[in-house]
Amino acid sequence: MNIIVINPGNKPYTNKTIVAEPLDVLMIATIIEKKYPQVKVLDMDSNRLNNDINKYLEEKNIVIFVYDYQLPLHTSNAIENIFEVIKNTQKPTKFIIIGKTSTYYYQKFLDNGIDIIIKGIADDKVLPVIDNINCEEELSKIPNIIYKKDNKIIKTTSVPSKNLFSTMPIPNRKLVSMDNYMDTRTMITSRGCIGTCKFCTTPYFYGKWSGKPAEEIIKEIEMLIKEYHTKKIIFLDDNMIVDKERIMNLCREIKRKKIKCLFGCLCSIKCYDYEMLKEMYESGFRWVHFGIESGSERLLKLMHKDMDISYIKKVIKEVKELGYRVRTSFILDYPTTTKEDLQTTKDLILELNPHELRLHYLAYRVGTPIYNENKDISNGSQYIHSNKPNIKNNEITTEVNNIIESLQKDNYHLITEETDWNKYTDLPKNTKIAAFTPIKYGMCWYE
Ligand code: SF4
Predict the structure, then answer these.
(1) Lower CB count within 10 Å: N or C terminus of the chain?
(2) What is the CATH T-level fold of the domain 2-155, as seen in this structure?
(3) Ligand 1 neighbourhood includes 329 CB (under 6 angstroms)
(4) How many other C-beta atoms can be found within 10 angstroms of the C-beta atom of residue 344?
């Protein structure tokens, strides 16, 4: 059986300068490879493939799309690419899909040719589904899957997904051509978060946080340095610093083994700990991201962020003093945002003065409380990396323009389109960037 795991192409394709290896796709393929070593990975985004996979097909095929699973790599339009691939397929093929959107939005995928949807965490379901792909009786015994039989939708027993990320294998990067990706290597060491932000899919999709132990993380770092001469690694965990002991162990091992590499990671202010961040800096961490999202305490409460503005200021000041390059993110059009909220947000941004700013318009992502409460605004769709406001309100638009103007006066380089990154290779230390697109990792990280 020919088995292909596909990272669908975005529309437009992700800009070459910021494209990262699709780690969640590779994780699924690595699990499959243990039993089916013939598995192949097709990254249609980085290879800029059109939606015709016929030349990769054999007499009998299983194609697994991994779309919007752990990494937010995709635009909403990539869904249309998936449907086109299915439409163009000329050989007998069973189509499986894994990810958040298909979990919540299954009807649309079944109607467009997907044979089996694996709901929720798929790591422990993908092999049983492949093993029993042609036996409906056995398929019907696997929990958390959806398929069609005689034009009727069959949903098997629903059980809570188990987040066992700590036991996941190291993704086999040899399944793709690593030359196609940005130089800064990516790693994921944990999944889930202790937060409950209403706009974020992580707590609702993955449940309890689970992370790999320090020894496993070290093995992967050493492999990346040996095999790919890696000098910079960005950890793309939802929130890497949930378990202080794990991070302290990791830092001790990095120092003991004298590993020479620079690191960056995404963290939540709720898990901030000065001693941990200091230890991390001393082990080579140079870049941290904190999702702050608003300067308005009213909006922070609505988002379930529950963060105190004075604490945010203290944390950002301390990490900057430790020497980190700091990124913060803000959502500019959260429902009920007023002109005054945006003015407070602007004041906070200017006071925090982060090196990098990721400015968002809210992505209404299926499965989140904010999506369920605002189906009228989100229009039943999922938006990822939307660079247009969802709320059509002149006051908001004017205030966003004021924020942009203030940032430019304050020496921020403004990035509004992914192609803007083509202008930058690397920049002097402390260069300030404000972006409406995903940010290029590894810029201005210095020893
Ligand atoms: S802190 Fe970050 S990862 Fe955690 S729930 Fe909130 S937005 Fe999601």
Answers:
(1) C
(2) Rossmann fold (3.40.50)
(3) no
(4) 17
Mean predicted confidence (pLDDT) in 67-80: 85
Q: What's the average model confidence in pLDDT over 344-354?
A: 98
Q: Nearest C-alpha to atom 6 of ligand 1 is from which residue?
A: 197
Total Cβ atoms within 10 A of residue 367:
18
**What's the 97 CA to ligand 1 centre distance in angstroms?**
25
Provide, rounded to the nearest whole percent, the portion of the chain with pLDDT above 70: 96
The domain defined by 183-435 folds into TIM Barrel (3.20.20)
- Taking only the tens place, the pLDDT of each residue in 405-418 is 999 999 999 998 88
> Percent of the chain scored above 90 by pLDDT?
79
**What are the sequence ranges of the domains in the chain?**
2-155, 183-435
Q: Is the CB of 192 under 6 A from ligand 1?
A: no
- Closest ligand 1 atom to residue 268 Cα is 1
What is d(CA 11, CA 384) in angstroms, rounded to the nearest whole number?
Answer: 12
Q: Determine whether the shortest distance from the Cβ of 200 to ligand 1 is under 6 A.
A: yes
- Which numbered atom of ligand 1 lies nearest the CA of 203? 5
pLDDT at 77: 79
Query: 396 pLDDT band (50/70/90 cuts)?
Result: confident
Q: Is the CB of 26 under 6 A from ligand 1?
A: no
What is the chain's mean pLDDT, rounded?
A: 93
Distance, in Å, from the CA atom of 416 to the CA atom of 151, rounded to the nearest integer, reads 45
Dump strand ranges (E) for 173-319. Answer: 185-187, 190-191, 210-211, 232-235, 262-267, 285-293
7: helix, coil or strand? strand
